[in-house]
């Protein structure tokens, strides 16, 4: 992927940057692997808004992506690298030897025509192959890592993300996360060799509010710009401090920097917490 700039013939395009899609080899999705994405605008089954600032956006299809990679010991050929509007990474279309087709999250630099495989045993350490984390040498970048065996990939699925194996001891492997956190996962957890594709996505500048609306993101209003009836930070003439010891959510709960992790059984698997924000 590359980043391209366009002629600044309007204010909205002056600072905007765009994806050049140079790594895309197929522009229409596989019909058997898509479903219609239904819009909820952040509302639950009762019609109440549970996620704010959602709504509108372009119509799109959901690509059914295989996060479990549970088709073991059957070779697959990378048929195409495609764009997925629902995630930052690219997706790869695999044609298996038995005729089945599946999408996976495409690792960076995965070439079309490459033969890859998923196995519960040791296979060649090359980009796109999937195997338990116990077989990955220390220092090799991996993506789409499971946290529980058989539950599907949960970690390092985003654009440009990767985790690194620090070592394997006993029942667990030590993993360094993108945040810097070091934690244990069971050595039977599956992972894919390589860094997740499209690392340049972080450098794209939207340039105007309309591009956010196309993505289904509605405007966010500062609490301090509201009235006191609408937000704990509201009220006052002109710019005012919030007038509270600590920031709060619109519902009066503590916000910004408050610890949200409750007692969880997985806490004991964290060896080193991620670095604190400065």
From TrEMBL:
GO terms for cellular component: large ribosomal subunit. Keywords: Ribonucleoprotein, Ribosomal protein, RNA-binding, rRNA-binding. InterPro entries: NA-bd_OB-fold (IPR012340), Rib_uL2_dom2 (IPR014722), Ribosomal_uL2 (IPR002171), Ribosomal_uL2_bac/org-type (IPR005880), Ribosomal_uL2_C (IPR022669), Ribosomal_uL2_CS (IPR022671), Ribosomal_uL2_dom3 (IPR014726), Ribosomal_uL2_RNA-bd_dom (IPR022666). One of its GO terms (molecular function) is structural constituent of ribosome. The keyword Oxidoreductase does not apply. Residues 125-254 form the Large ribosomal subunit protein uL2 C-terminal domain. Pfam families: Ribosomal_L2_C, Ribosomal_L2_N. Residues 222-278 are annotated as: Disordered. The keyword Cell membrane does not apply. Residues 42-118 form the Large ribosomal subunit protein uL2 RNA-binding domain. GO terms for biological process: cytoplasmic translation. Residues 259-278 have a biased composition (Basic residues). It comes from the Bacteria. NCBIfam families: rplB_bact. One of the primary rRNA binding proteins. Required for association of the 30S and 50S subunits to form the 70S ribosome, for tRNA binding and peptide bond formation. It has been suggested to have peptidyltransferase activity; this is somewhat controversial. Makes several contacts with the 16S rRNA in the 70S ribosome. Belongs to the universal ribosomal protein uL2 family. PANTHER family: LARGE RIBOSOMAL SUBUNIT PROTEIN UL2M, RIBOSOMAL PROTEIN L2. Part of the 50S ribosomal subunit. Forms a bridge to the 30S subunit in the 70S ribosome. This is Large ribosomal subunit protein uL2. It comes from Candidatus Falkowbacteria bacterium HGW-Falkowbacteria-2. The gene is rplB.
């Amino acid at each position: 992927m590359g980043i391209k700039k366009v002629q600044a013939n309007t204010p909205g395009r002056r600072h905007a940057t765009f994806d050049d899609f140079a790594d895309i080899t197929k522009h229409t999705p596989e019909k058997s692997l898509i479903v219609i994405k239904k819009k909820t605008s952040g509302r639950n089954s009762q019609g109440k808004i549970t996620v704010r600032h959602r709504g509108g956006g372009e119509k799109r299809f959901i690509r059914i992506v295989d996060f479990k990679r549970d088709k073991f010991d059957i070779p697959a050929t990378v048929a195409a690298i495609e764009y997925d509007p629902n995630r930052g990474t690219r997706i790869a279309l695999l044609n298996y030897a038995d005729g089945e087709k599946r999408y996976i999250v495409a690792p960076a630099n995965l070439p079309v025509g490459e033969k890859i495989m998923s196995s519960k045993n040791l296979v060649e350490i090359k980009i796109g192959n999937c195997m338990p984390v116990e077989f990955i040498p220390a220092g090799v970048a991996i993506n789409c890592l499971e946290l529980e065996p058989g539950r599907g990939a949960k970690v390092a699925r985003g654009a440009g993300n990767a985790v690194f194996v620090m070592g394997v001891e006993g029942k667990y492997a030590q993993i360094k996360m993108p945040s810097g956190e070091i934690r244990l996962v069971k050595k039977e957890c599956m992972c894919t060799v390589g860094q997740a594709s499209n690392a340049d996505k972080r450098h794209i500048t939207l340039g105007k509010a309309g591009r956010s609306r196309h993505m289904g993101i509605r405007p966010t209003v500062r609490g301090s710009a509201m009235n006191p009836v609408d937000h704990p930070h509201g009220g006052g003439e002109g710019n005012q401090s919030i007038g509270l010891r600590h920031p709060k959510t619109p519902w009066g709960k503590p916000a910004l920097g408050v610890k949200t992790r409750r007692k969880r059984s997985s806490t004991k698997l964290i060896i080193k917490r991620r670095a604190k924000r400065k």
